[in-house]
Amino acid sequence: MYYSFIGLIGAERLVELVVSRRNAAWSFAHGGREFGRGHYPVMVGMHTLLLVSCIVEVASMHRPFLPWLGWPMVAVVVISTAVRWWCVSVLGKHWNPRLIVIKGAPLVRRGPYRWVHHPNYTAVAAEVAALPLVHSAWVTAIVFSVANALVLTVRIHAENVALGYT
């Protein structure tokens, strides 16, 4: 069941890539400029390896499903995915995991952006920690949470500069 859950998350990521490509084409057609290009492949690689590592750790280390941990972590993954798609819907054609900014476009201040500059990254951090813990893959949860924190430090700085926050 866990492997199917990971497959479902992987399929959801592929849908994101389709939306991302469509939105990138629209943004570039409207004068968009890409920032932080160097860290994007690192983000993609990290998220891909996260899914692989979830499977490898559970299979090779025989990690059990612990209902008291697993079910709450499923809830965290579902909620974080819902928040991420809320961000996608609020940003519309401006949403992209690539950092593409259209000069003069107003900053979004509705939806989850009313409260947080980067709600998507909050949801991603929760998901990165929770997804492996669904099946008690604690090594993957720790390693990828640290890796995600490092990547997001670079990403958020680049995004803040691109959006004029700093």
UniProtKB/TrEMBL annotation:
Please classify the protein's predominant subcellular localization into one broad category.
membrane
Any one GO molecular-function label of the UniProt entry:
protein C-terminal S-isoprenylcysteine carboxyl O-methyltransferase activity
Localisation per UniProt entry? Membrane
Residue ranges annotated as transmembrane are: 40-62, 68-88
Record-linked InterPro entries: ICMT_MeTrfase (IPR007269)
Give the record's membrane topology: Multi-pass membrane protein
Q: Which Pfam families match?
A: ICMT
Keyword set, alphabetical order? Membrane, Transmembrane, Transmembrane helix
Signal sequence bounds: none
**This protein's GO CC annotations:** membrane
This protein is called: Isoprenylcysteine carboxyl methyltransferase
- Organism name: Mycolicibacterium sphagni
